[in-house]
């Protein structure tokens, strides 16, 4: 309610500007705010949701502006053709840049974006024949509607409505499967990959989207100004865009609006101190980073508490999605589902996994145990695609998977969990599982932008069922970051379940759990198995392993030293020696 | 002309390498870096100008003042822009260090003035002739000074107790901490040293370039490009990349145009990051799960 009031107030204020003043300068300022909102909405998706810091958005902004200006002056295009053209060209350039640069992160990504910005700026100056060089492009015709050029007061409406549209589109994206995927890749690339998402594709989409917004902003700017010169598109402009998003509130919907308004108007208010303008930017940037990680909007918003009111209701009564479902017929099918054949992996001189041959039967719990350094985690990484074996074959349901990307192995139905649970901390518990339920089937980004199909109901139902199955049904709205430790593992399992895993590879799921929680885990695994699912359990916790496993493989120094039923393995002298250190 | 271009390429390249070595130092010890290294170059030049040219003190005093100011700024950057965000996970320090750079630039603008000023030096007055080409002695001094300083840095790292501590932290933070090395202090030292290198580069460059509040920005970015090209983790790679970058830049500027210089230089960086993100001297990182 308060939120709706706030937005109405903003809309009314924006609508009142041309009625209150006919002063060209004030209109120009208001339109600058609106244009910056358009650009930074895209940057907000990129930096806020997807966590990528771009210091080259001025370059994209420039490409939008120059495309529109050239379209209008050279090709005689009108505003209504030049704008979409600018958006398309900028998005294409952004996609191209993303394809080269987005395998990178941190300072490397910063370097790519800075380099891009400098190259564009250099090209604007140097490529005189196209861009007019340092002098730029003049006489960009005013936008026209029905053949008559629009006065500034009318153009104001076009710019303002575009800004409103930009806010609306980012809201839609944030609430869509794409929005969750952006956040998922930011929070844990490993987990996103293990659920079938390709981080590279998701990042590329975020970058392309933000480029399209920058292009639209650039085109609006070109038609507002009537002339363009390279001075408007420097590294400082890129930093200003970032500052707007940070100051307003990274990842908050109103952030770009608050930030753009503040940063366009503040320097106007202190015009007698114009020479301290940079200082203002520097201090605001430092403050935004320092005191308000979530910006002004985040500081104002009340932190909502979404924990369940009473204690934890961790019943395991809810049915598993597959119980009684058509998939259940595989429950008694004990064919080999995961097969390793002579798998070897060495790091330098150390053979972490040496010639391991292993067969996991469907609908069983197959444990892999061994002392520290036995190669268990390396084995998980090899099976789940996080590492490539030096030799040997790995097959999932008969198909070779060694060396494939984790995301494609996940799509084939093998999902792993991590020793330290990898949750998407910024998402709610339900949204974590929804990322799994949707997986790589993100649908069209355009549809997400338009806000259609906000709830993919089938995936949603799967997500809720998976949560209920692991006993987290009451926790759906809690941010994953606030989840108690024992529940974090369950959330990981629920996520894998919703992702449609047939084979779960659980890397030490009992580590750090209280005895009661281990028992609950034991019961959960038994139910998964009963539903026809296969579990590969990497564990230290011998009680759990012996209680639940159908088969146990013991690794020591990368080799299989025993393989068989739990009771037989427990008596095996080689195993006893490996654990207790006596010579066989 | 080719001799002049080569000399000026090596001169600038050595300075890029020197500044880039500063990025390497803090990256190695803390996986963070000071994005306003270029502003420290400017700070060094401006302080030296103020003490030597404006106040008329001897050059030696100016150099000492520059070293002190740079080191102090390095410590300030570490303390207020890096340390609070050490565990943030995302590269927030990137933005906070940029913020400090912007503030310093504005301070320089207000105190020093916006206009560029010449830094008179006997070494940049009259050209000497080398293989028939006229070059300034300062241009010959730069690569020498650069090599000596870069070598000195390596000696410090490998031969002194304190340098070895930094090396230990670079190798394994946790283990170094367990061995009784004060890790935060080591990181702060790396920041001070890295700023000193940039400040010295500022003093050395001042006679060749004009001194102005904006002189450092592009130098800092180019040095960052050099650090990436050479490999952030590899001091040797960075030294080589510095000279290469300087040479390529000088040749492009001489035979194509000064504007094309930046385009070619930064396009090289993007190409390198696409093909070999770990740089010339770096090693392909292994993935940790």
Would you identify the regions of chain B where 5 or more consecutive residues have pLDDT less than 50?
Answer: none
Q: Label the structural class of chain A.
A: alpha/beta
Largest sheet of chain A: 6 strands, mixed
Shape of chain A: elongated
Please bin the fraction of helical residues of chain B: over 70%
- Low-pLDDT stretches of chain A are 302-318, 321-332
Largest interface: A-B, 47 and 45 residues
Give helix and strand order of chain B, one letter per element, not per position: HHHHEEHHHHHHH
How does the helix and strand content of chain B classify structurally? mainly alpha
| Mean pLDDT, all residues of chain A | 84
Query: Which overall shape of chain B is indicated by the principal axes computed on the Cα atoms?
Result: globular
Radius of gyration of chain A: 28 Å
Task: Please report the number of helical segments of chain A.
Answer: 24
Secondary structure layout:
The complex is a heterodimer of chains A (584) and B (289).
Chain A: H1 2-20, H2 24-49, H3 57-73, H4 79-101, H5 106-126, H6 128-131, E1 144-145, E2 148-149, H7 152-174, H8 177-187, H9 189-194, H10 199-225, H11 235-248, H12 255-269, H13 277-290, H14 295-300, E3 336-347, E4 350-361, E5 365-369, H15 376-384, E6 391-396, E7 399-400, H16 406-411, E8 414-416, H17 429-438, H18 445-450, H19 457-470, H20 485-498, E9 503-507, H21 515-530, E10 534-538, H22 542-548, E11 551-556, E12 559-564, H23 566-571, H24 573-580
Parallel strand pairs in A: 5-10, 5-11, 8-9, 9-10
Antiparallel strand pairs in A: 1-2, 3-4, 3-6, 6-7, 11-12
Chain B: H1 2-30, H2 37-54, H3 59-82, H4 92-112, E1 128-130, E2 133-135, H5 137-159, H6 161-171, H7 173-178, H8 183-205, H9 215-230, H10 235-255, H11 258-275
Antiparallel strand pairs in B: 1-2
């Amino acid at each position: 309610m308060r939120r709706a009031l706030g937005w109405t107030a903003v809309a009314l204020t924006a609508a009142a500007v041309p009625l209150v003043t006919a002063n060209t300068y004030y209109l120009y300022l208001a339109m600058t705010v609106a244009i910056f909102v358009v650009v930074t909405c895209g940057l907000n998706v990129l930096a806020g949701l997807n966590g990528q810091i771009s210091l080259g958005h001025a370059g994209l902004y420039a490409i939008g502006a120059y495309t529109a200006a050239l379209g209008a002056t050279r090709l005689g295009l009108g505003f209504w053709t030049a704008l979409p053209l600018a958006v398309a060209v900028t998005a294409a350039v952004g996609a191209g840049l993303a394809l080269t640069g987005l395998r990178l992160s941190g300072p490397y990504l910063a370097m790519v974006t800075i380099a891009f910005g400098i190259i564009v700026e250099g090209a604007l100056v140097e490529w005189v024949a196209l861009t007019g060089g340092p002098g730029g492009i003049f006489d960009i015709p005013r936008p026209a509607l029905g053949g008559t050029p629009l006065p500034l007061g009318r153009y104001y409406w076009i710019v303002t409505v575009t800004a409103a549209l930009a806010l609306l589109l980012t809201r839609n994206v944030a609430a869509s499967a794409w929005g969750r995927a952006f956040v998922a890749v930011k929070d844990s690339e490993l987990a996103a990959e293990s659920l079938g998402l390709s981080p590279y594709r998701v990042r590329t989409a975020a970058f392309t989207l933000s480029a399209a917004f920058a292009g639209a902003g650039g085109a609006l700017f070109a038609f507002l100004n009537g002339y363009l010169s390279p001075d408007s598109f420097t590294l400082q402009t890129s930093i200003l865009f970032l500052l707007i998003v940070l100051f307003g509130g990274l990842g908050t919907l109103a952030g770009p609006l608050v930030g753009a308004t503040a940063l366009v108007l503040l320097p106007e208010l202190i015009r007698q101190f114009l020479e301290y303008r940079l200082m203002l930017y520097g201090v605001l940037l430092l403050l935004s980073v320092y005191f308000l990680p979530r910006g002004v909007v985040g500081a104002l918003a009340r932190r909502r508490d979404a924990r369940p009111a009473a204690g934890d209701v961790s019943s395991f009564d809810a049915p598993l999605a597959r119980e009684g479902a058509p998939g259940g017929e595989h429950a008694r099918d004990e064919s080999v589902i995961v097969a390793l054949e002579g798998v070897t992996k060495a790091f330098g001189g150390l053979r972490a996994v040496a010639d391991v041959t292993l067969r996991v039967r469907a609908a069983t719990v197959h444990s892999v145990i061994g002392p520290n350094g036995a190669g268990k985690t390396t084995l998980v990484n090899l099976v789940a695609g996080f590492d490539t074996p030096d030799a040997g074959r790995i097959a999932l349901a008969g198909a070779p998977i060694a060396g494939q990307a984790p995301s494609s192995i996940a799509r084939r139905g093998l999902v792993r969990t991590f020793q330290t649970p990898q949750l998407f901390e910024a998402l709610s518990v339900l949204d974590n599982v929804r990322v799994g339920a949707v997986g790589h089937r993100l649908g069209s980004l355009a549809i997400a932008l338009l806000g259609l199909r906000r709830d993919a109901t089938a995936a949603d139902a799967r997500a809720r069922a998976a949560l209920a199955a692991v006993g987290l049904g009451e926790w759906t709205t809690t941010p994953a970051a606030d989840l108690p430790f024992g529940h974090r593992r369950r959330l990981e399992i629920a996520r894998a379940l919703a992702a449609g895993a047939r084979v779960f590879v659980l890397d030490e799921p009992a580590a750090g759990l209280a005895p009661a929680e281990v028992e609950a885990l034991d019961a959960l695994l038994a139910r998964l198995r009963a539903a026809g699912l296969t579990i590969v359990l990497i564990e230290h916790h011998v009680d759990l392993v012996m209680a639940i496993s159908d088969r146990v493989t013991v690794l020591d120094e990368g080799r299989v030293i025993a393989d068989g039923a739990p009771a037989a393995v427990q008596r095996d002298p080689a195993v006893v020696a490996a654990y207790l250190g006596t010579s066989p | 002309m080719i001799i002049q271009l080569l000399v000026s390429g090596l001169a600038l390249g050595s300075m890029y390498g020197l500044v880039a070595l500063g990025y390497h130092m803090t990256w190695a010890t803390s996986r963070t870096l000071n994005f306003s290294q270029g502003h420290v170059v400017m700070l060094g030049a401006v302080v030296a100008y103020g003490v030597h040219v404006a106040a008329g003190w001897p050059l030696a005093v100016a150099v000492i003042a520059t070293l002190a100011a740079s080191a102090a700024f390095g410590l300030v950057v570490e303390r207020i822009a890096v340390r609070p965000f050490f565990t943030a996970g995302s590269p927030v320090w990137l933005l906070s260090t940029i913020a400090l750079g912007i503030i310093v630039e504005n301070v320089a603008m207000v105190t020093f003035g916006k206009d560029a000023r010449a830094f008179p030096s006997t070494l940049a007055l009259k050209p000497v002739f080398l293989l028939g080409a006229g070059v300034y002695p300062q241009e010959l001094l730069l690569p020498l000074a650069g090599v000596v300083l870069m070598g000195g840095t390596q000696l410090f790292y490998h031969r002194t107790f304190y340098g070895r501590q930094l090396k230990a932290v670079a190798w394994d933070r946790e283990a170094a901490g367990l061995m009784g090395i004060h890790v935060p202090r080591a990181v702060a030292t790396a920041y001070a040293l890295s700023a000193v290198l940039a400040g010295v580069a500022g003093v050395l460059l001042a006679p060749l370039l004009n001194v102005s509040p904006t002189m450092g920005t592009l130098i800092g970015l180019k040095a960052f490009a050099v650090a990436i090209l050479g490999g952030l983790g590899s001091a040797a790679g960075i030294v080589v990349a510095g000279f290469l970058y300087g040479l390529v830049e000088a040749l492009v500027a001489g035979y194509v145009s000064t504007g094309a210089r930046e385009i070619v230089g930064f396009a090289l960086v993007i190409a390198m990051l696409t093909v070999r993100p770990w740089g010339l001297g770096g090693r392909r990182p292994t993935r940790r799960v």
